[in-house]
Each structure stands twice: as C-alpha cells, then as structure tokens.
Amino acid sequence: xxxxxxxxxxxxxxxDTPGRIRLSGSKSQSNRLLLLQAAMDGAFSIDxxxxxxxxxxxxxxxxxxxxxxxxGHAGTAMRFGTAYLASCPGREVVLTGSGRMKERPIAPxxxxxxxxxxxxxxxxxxxxxxxxxxxxxxxxxxxRIDSTVSSQFITALMLMAPFWQQGLHLxxxxxxxxxxxxxxxxxxxxxxxxxxRVGEQDVIVPPAKGCAVDxxxxxxxxxxxxxxxxxxxxxxxxxxxxxxxxxSPQGDSRLSRIFREVFGVESVFSPGGILRLVPREGYSAPxxxxxxxxxxxxxxxxxxxxxxALKIKGCLTGLGTLRVKETDRIAALQTELAKFGVGxxxxxxxxxxETFSPRSREICLETYQDHRMAMAFVPLALxxxxxxxxxxxxxxxxxxxxxxMASVGLLCREVR
Length: 416
Known about the structure:
The chain is α/β, with parallel strands linked by helices. It is about 30% helix and about 20% strand.
C-alpha cells in the first residue's frame, strides 16, 4: 500500500529547534571504495560508509554469490557491477533491476567492455539491462567510450582498470557529462595508492602496484547537504552539518558556491569537519538567474525548488542526464512545480522557470520512484502543507531524511 507523509506548515521564524545534523557518508565515495575493496581482497577498511539503499545494493553485487542479482533502482550498482562481474574469471551471473532500470541505457559501457574481451549479452531490450555476464580475466589495454551519456560508465572502467594486466587507456568520445564525478573517481583511486591520469579526452590507469592504506574515511554526502542548504535559503536559518571538507573531492560540493552567490547562504568550516550554513544578512533574491548545472546534476532539483520558493525566474542548463535518471527529472519537475503555481518550459537539457501563480489548495507530490523528487520539494512546505506519495523512496540515498527533517522542526506525520 502506498504511504504518504503530510507536512505541517511553519512560518520561517518558528523553525527554531537546533539545526545540528550528522550526515551519512557519501554514496558516491562509498560505492567506489567498496568496489576497490572487493577487487583488492579487503586490503583496507572503510569508515563512515553510506547507509543508503544504493550502497547496500552495491554490497550485494560484490558479495552475493547468487546466479541472479537484482539491483532494483540502483544505477551505480548496475554500472559498477557490470564491470566488476565481467572481470571475475569463472563467474556467470544475470544482472537485472527494476522496470525503470531496464529502460536505462548501458550500451556504451557494454560496448567498451566487449572491446576488451568481456562476455556480456543483453537478455531483453538491446542496449539495456538485464545482462548475462560471463566473467573473464580481461587484459585491459586501449578502448573508446561514448562519454556523453553517463560518467558512471567511465568510472566503472576506471575502477576495474588497475586489476587488468595492461591497465587502461580510455579515449573519451564527445563532451563528457558530469565530469566532476570522473575527477572524484580519480581521487578515490589515488586515496588507496592507485595511479590515474585524467586528460581532456582520455584517461590512463596503469596496473595496480598494491594498496597504500589500511583504512579510509568517507566524507559525508554533499548531495544530502543540499537539502539543508535549500532550507537555509528559504527559511533564512542556519544549520550545522558534519563531517565535511573545505576542499572536497565530491563534485556536488560546488553547490556551496551556487548557494553563496545566488541564494545568500555562506559555508563556514570549523575544526573537526563541522560545516555551518549561515544566511547572509541583508540578502535580496535576484529577479532572474541562469545556472549551468552540468557539473552538479544531482542538486538541480533542489536549486529549481529554491528558485520557485524565492520567486526567482531563470534557466537551468546542462540537465541532459536528468532525462535518464530514476525518472525523467525535467518532466517531473515541470509537472510537480505546476501544482505549486510555478510555470516552467523545458528543452532536452534545460528547465526555465517563467511564471508564478497561486498554488493548488490540496497538493499531493508524486515522487516517481525518485528519491530526489521527494526530498527536493520539502522547502515548499514552509509556504503551506502538502503530502508526499511513497516517501520511503528516500532510503535510496538518505534513509534518515524524514527523521532529520523532524529534528530541525519541520514536522510531518505518516498517513497510511
């Protein structure tokens, strides 16, 4: 049975409970490190691992000896798992997922792995999961990949390359999307002593020489922090988050610049990894803004909602990858923002906020099985209550989201 959460609206001045939140480790870092840990036979341990469903799915792919593995909605586990399982000699497995996962493209990764000798077949629709994978000892070497669809295809190859005899020289064809995630992968490789060079149109990963560490600490998740940046901007109140680095390898850390320059929220780092969000005194919202979200696509929904809440017209570009996420996020944003009186137009890779009118009286937010749709819209509860269908989708990346919202004063109640 569907669940829904009804929000109770509060004026910004009433949200006066202490805003101190400890966030789980980065999902992106955790999943990369788990794959490396498995490939290196447990040579190092991982602290502050993400508690997300995606990370649990990643662990299942790496640890479950079953002949059929179902990743559900976890795109990272599907992409990384494909490269990992293809590199496990003697292993034969069917890798599958949810209905939406079976619609998401994986051909660029499969083509690249096949060119390196991998045994992978499509079981249903050409170019999409499910896959039959026959693991082999791959030699590595040189190959090409279409880099315009998903950075996770590139990351999957980079993570397994150190364990191939010749390493990997990967040529990137087209303009790479979400490039900061490629840089994050390089940073994670280096953090355990593996070499990597990322150029403009190629990546070189030599064979591994061993592990340089016995323990790795995962930084907290910047995309999870984005929801508190959004609340800070809309409610004009501060928060304290842990554990974050001022020079973070996570691409989504760039959201701190966006929120400082556009929404007036300052980021203040303290000893011990505490990040304080401080609304700037005298801030006045701009009438219009244009932002390229190509490097930070996972925070685009939060940015769009803050613009809507502050009545800022403008255009978000670089959103092409949002069309092939858990849902078509551009279309979902258009549909759901309209319920709040926000008129938008869209292209293949952009969203323009154009008009504002009174919101609907009774609003039920559809989440489209997309965790970020459920979380991104929460700041609009400050303007009036609404309900969220299937709120449990947040467990994909942030299982404690609703509890943390309640802890800072945004109360909600479950309706069954």
